[in-house]
Amino acid sequence: MRHARLIGAGAAALLVAMPALAQDASAQDDSKQDSNRFTAERVFDLEYATSPRVSPDGSKIVYVRHSMDIRTDQDRGDLWIIDVESGEQRPLVVGGMSASNPRWSPDGEKLIYSTTKDEKPELRLLYLDSGDSFSLAQFEEGPSGASWSPDGSMIAFSKFVPGETPSFAEAPEKPEGAEWNEPVKVFDDLTFRFDGQGYLEEGVEQVFVLSTDGGSPRQLTSGEADMSNPVWLDEDTLLVTGNKADDRHIDRIESEIYTLELSDMSMKALTDRDGPDHSPVVSPDGQTIAFRGHDDNVLSYEQSNLYLMDADGTNVRELAASFDRSMGETMWAPDGESVYVLAENKGNMDVFEVSRTGGVSKALSGLGGTSIGRPYAGAGVSVSKTGEPVFAYTQGSPNKPADIAVAGETVDARELTALNDDILPHLDMATVEEIKVTSSHDGREIEAWVALPPGFEADGSYPMILEIHGGPFSMYGPFFAAEIQRYAAEGYVTVWANPRGSTGYGEEFAQLIDQAYPGNDYDDLMSVVDAIVENNYADPDRLFVTGGSGGGVLTAWIVGKTDRFAAAATIKPVINWFTEALAGDIAPTVWRHWIREDPWENPQAYWELSPISLVGNVVTPTLVMVGEEDWRTPTWEAEQFYTALKLRGIDSALIRVPESPHYIAGRPSRLIAKTDNIMGWFAKYDPAKQDEDSGGKADTAPEKTSSEAANWFKRDRKDERKKTSEESAAGDSPAEDAETPAQQSGQATGGNAATDADEPSGEEADTPEAEDNDEEKPEIESEET
């Protein structure tokens, strides 16, 4: 954002006398400035890495190299291969349709990967020595979770198997050439549509095996329950995960681990508790299974714990019960004496080594960078089979998206790619600072980050955007985000935080919002804003707020609680928990684990947590945005808020994003449209902009209604800020990385049931490849986990 400058009379006369020259010079200056800025078009220049897969001998790494195709408006992926010793990399599978999910054969001589051909899914096998590849089979439904057998002769995977559609009538035969209406659609399942998939076809996921010589897949499982994520226990036995519970349509997080014998297709449950058990990983000697899960205490969030059991399902024991972090992707160390787990940790993504006796030590840090739109925590990692393990991972940074890095005792630890060095080092980018703030509610430490625009000076003149993460059980961190950089390029100071309810700070901290969301997370966020203003980073009259999904919930809640923001943009929010619990794709989770009340029996429990309950207080001009194919927080959630604001005479606008599911930023042009429309809305209500347009005489306050509810907010804003400042103990300087009370709570006993992974952050919340994220996380936001 450029600021107006005062000019002297002589200079003004020169501009009047030579308008054409002045315009030419101005155009040149603007062009030069744009060439150095992270403009909207720069989104198409970005590249990033995901799915790093190190070969069994640790000598090579295959990864997915993502780029933004400006013609097809797609985030596409190609496979590249890196020689670890020399650092040399070359293309492996490029130029055709996107490729993903590479997996090495046990001997390290072949790869399988997923792609499409003629709009049909393919699973292809690639020979590394010749570069030849072939399609293993013809598929109508895409295979997922592909896994090599120990001897490399078979591939196990799961795929959707269509079932019989319910029907109550047989339509008469229509005459030849007649044009009748499409047949009616009949549903009898509780979940009949899902975000990113639309209305669901009848059927279930089943497990198959296929020879690596190609041919016809052989179906191994059957029945009415989904079975997926096959892992080889030995040459003749698979481990599969599924939910056979009678109430599985309601209890969606429940799952057990089963053995599946290829000889007779018999199955045996290895786990049997009330709660999810999943993600089995077999030890190198085949005698022990590591897995993750938790007891289902019917809470909105419970951390995922790490367990071991013998190969026959006996001797189940929890590892590192006092390690207060949710256990993520799990890998055995080559010697079988420990496992490595990826975990969110105070804004960072770290790999921890957990011994068989439960000892925990940090093995790797600095992971991240796979969430492009917003600064979610997301990373990929793999480990070799060698005696001294070699790690391949995505390295995160505030300054650029994910690159591939390598570490280990026998290799030179370093970053191996520099995918954006042709662009980003030559632009004026935001600088990112960490701050730690004391919450005004209860004194808890709240971690946040602030992105400062190029040329920033702490003079109290800058506009500020508070950007709120979704989930709400997810985590932001000091990671590159295209949306944050766009804000900075236009002159905004942008702050993002991990308020209570965020993951990575211990189970107790996340559970503070159980049946209390939104709630005191509001106070945490206002304390962060107070700290920014108190340290002269922003003009208190130029504050703006936005957030997507769970962040959209909090944005709508915030404007119902305060008028300190000049404008707001609530993106894909839940506005009414009553309708979300009855019509969203995660309705069973909202009803069973979140609110834990029948909406028809206790509607007040839903109303008290719904932003629509506060709409009578809103005076802030508010933009509402939602994808037209969003079934996570459906369009009617946004439309309820928009309509209520319009009925009250509050300045508002509604943006519907065509063809977009919940993950609006899934296509580059949608990311640009989202971010630039938010900034356009904020500019419309920016007091400094209004002063510029009217020569400093504008009434900078937005028009307010005369309703009694609106009058509740008619108070002196300066006095309110003073009161807030006096009541808050907010601070802004980086502090030591001390444990919070939430992190000192001891044993973690649960797993994640968040509503909002709005970006594929787990490499997910997240990974961009959903196949790499084998744990179901019913989140509000999936970006965008």
Radius of gyration: 27 Å
Class per helix and strand makeup: alpha+beta
Principal-axis shape: globular
Taking the alpha carbons of the first and last residues, their distance comes to: 32 Å
Q: Flag low-confidence runs.
A: 1-28, 697-757, 761-778
Q: What structural keywords apply?
A:
38 strands, eight-stranded mixed β-sheet, single chain, disordered N terminus
Brief characterization of the structure:
Helices cover 17% and strands 29% of the residues. It is an alpha+beta fold and 785 residues long.
Topology:
Blueprint lengths: L8 H9 L1 H17 L11 E8 L5 E10 L4 E10 L5 E5 L6 E5 L5 E8 L2 E8 L5 E3 L8 E5 L5 E9 L30 E2 L3 E2 L3 E9 L6 E2 L7 E8 L2 E6 L13 E6 L5 E3 L7 E6 L5 E6 L11 E6 L6 E3 L10 E3 L5 E8 L2 E8 L4 E8 L13 E3 L6 E6 L7 E6 L5 E2 L15 E8 L6 E8 L11 E5 L13 H8 L3 E6 L8 H4 L10 H14 L8 E6 L1 H10 L7 E5 L5 H7 L3 H9 L7 H5 L14 E6 L7 H13 L4 E6 L10 H17 L2 H7 L14 H4 L5 H11 L58
Parallel strand pairs: 33-34, 33-35, 35-36, 36-37, 37-38
Antiparallel strand pairs: 1-2, 2-3, 3-4, 5-6, 6-7, 7-8, 9-10, 10-13, 11-12, 13-14, 15-16, 16-17, 17-18, 19-20, 20-21, 21-22, 23-24, 24-25, 25-26, 27-28, 28-29, 29-30, 31-32, 32-34
Helix pairs in contact: 7-8
Task: Explain what the structure shows.
The longest helix has 17 residues, at 19-35. Helices cover 17% and strands 29% of the residues. An 8-stranded mixed sheet has the order 31-32-34-33-35-36-37-38, sandwiched between helices. Strands 1-2-3-4 form a 4-stranded antiparallel sheet, with no helix packed on it. Strand 9 (144-148) and strand 10 form a beta hairpin. The protein is globular, with a radius of gyration of 27 Å. With 785 residues, it is α+β, with helices and mostly antiparallel strands. Helix 7 (577-583) packs across helix 8. It has 14 helices and 38 strands.
